[in-house]
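Lab notebook, design round three. We kept the backbone fixed and only want residue identities now. Task for the bench partner: fill in a sequence for the structure below.
Input structure tokens:
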């Protein structure tokens, strides 16, 4: 007796048996109804819209093979630092596993409102290269069953190389609580780039002595400038200048470079997402002549 194989059903069963980790995961779309609501004008007038709080439905491809832990510490004197990592407070690292605190780590963390998370108040992520570049792609995992919002702090920098940090949104259940973010990026002689998760909500500090500060077009839609070095992402919501508002713990970010530029945008934005310098734009909107030139905001 000859039994013919049902190739159609066989193919379907094989596709269903694929492990989750091998299935393709396209990057999340930011052009659907869950994205930021965008007013028609791109002017730097005060905004009241909150940033998106919707978690993506798929896992970022960049982080499919990333390691997970509550803390990570990468320091190099001459070589570049480049990594992908998921900060997961559910996977604690013992204190003895981390190297001794460096002056760069201690100084960077002390300038954050929230400070470090446990382990002697050390930052959850520390990434530093003295003579080369620093490139980090991060995810921050939500925590189930938390009564209050915890805080995750990240310090990254370089003396002579570029600094790039992108924080990607991760899919999570409706009952998971996303930790508040404290991000500090600094550089002396090169460019600093920070790409924020689209759930970011809180104060944003930026400074440069001899470079330009540029905010992406998408971030401008929910960004309210307050001074040449301080702005706020999302609705102000009773913010009084600290690390919390009427909605609870806020995110915070600080980007600074002495002799290079600073670029800040949202996760997934292209390299050409930055337009004219921030100070030039703000000065034009507010009618303050010469502000952009003074602060080096020329293209």
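Proposed sequence:
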């Amino acid at each position: 007796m000859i039994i013919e194989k049902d190739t159609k059903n066989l193919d379907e069963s094989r596709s269903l048996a694929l492990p989750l980790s091998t299935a393709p995961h396209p990057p999340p779309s930011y052009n659907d109804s869950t994205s930021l609501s965008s007013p028609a004008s791109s002017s730097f007038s005060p905004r009241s819209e909150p940033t998106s709080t919707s978690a993506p439905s798929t896992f970022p491809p960049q982080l499919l093979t990333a390691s997970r832990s509550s803390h990570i510490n990468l320091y190099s004197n001459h070589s570049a630092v480049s990594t992908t990592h998921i900060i997961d407070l559910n996977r604690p690292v013992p204190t003895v596993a981390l190297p001794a605190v460096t002056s760069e780590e201690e100084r960077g963390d002390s300038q954050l409102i929230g400070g470090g998370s446990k382990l002697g108040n050390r930052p959850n992520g520390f990434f530093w290269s003295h003579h080369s570049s620093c490139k980090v792609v991060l995810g921050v995992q939500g925590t189930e069953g938390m009564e209050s919002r915890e805080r995750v702090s990240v310090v990254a920098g370089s003396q002579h190389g570029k600094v790039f940090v992108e924080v990607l949104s991760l899919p999570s259940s409706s009952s998971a609580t996303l930790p508040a973010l404290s991000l500090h990026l600094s550089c002396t002689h090169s460019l600093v780039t920070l790409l924020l998760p689209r759930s970011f909500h809180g104060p944003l500090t930026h400074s440069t002595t001899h470079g330009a500060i540029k905010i992406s077009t998408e971030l401008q839609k929910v960004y309210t400038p307050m001074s040449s070095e301080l702005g706020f992402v999302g609705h102000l919501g009773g913010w009084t200048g600290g690390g919390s508002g009427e909605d609870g713990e806020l995110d915070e970010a600080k980007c600074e470079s002495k002799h290079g530029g600073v670029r800040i945008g949202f996760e997934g934005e292209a390299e050409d997402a930055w337009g004219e310098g921030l100070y030039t734009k703000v000065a034009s909107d507010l009618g303050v002549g010469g502000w952009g030139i003074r602060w080096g905001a020329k293209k």
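Keep this in mind before ordering anything: The CA atoms of residues 20 and 140 lie 20 Å apart.
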